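G., the chain you wanted modeled:
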Amino acid sequence: MAEIIQIDDAFITLGQFLKHATIISSGGMAKPFLMEYAISVNGEAENRRGRKLYPGDTIDVEEFGTYTIESSVDGAE
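Predicted structure as tokens:
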């Protein structure tokens, strides 16, 4: 089962996601992390830290697990 990562904005970058999910401790670690670990977004390999992730996207991080992006903003109000 995927871990849910909630975001307050329309999107989050892959580098921001890694920090938000506590996979890395600082944004400066994103580039080296992406060079060392395989990551896929919606089943496609990805290594760009600026890749935009939107609610509904699924991210698989080698050795860390699967995550799904959700919006924490309630659009019904």
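The beta strands are 3-7, 12-13, 39-41, 44-45, 52-53, 58-61, 65-71.

Shout if anything looks off.
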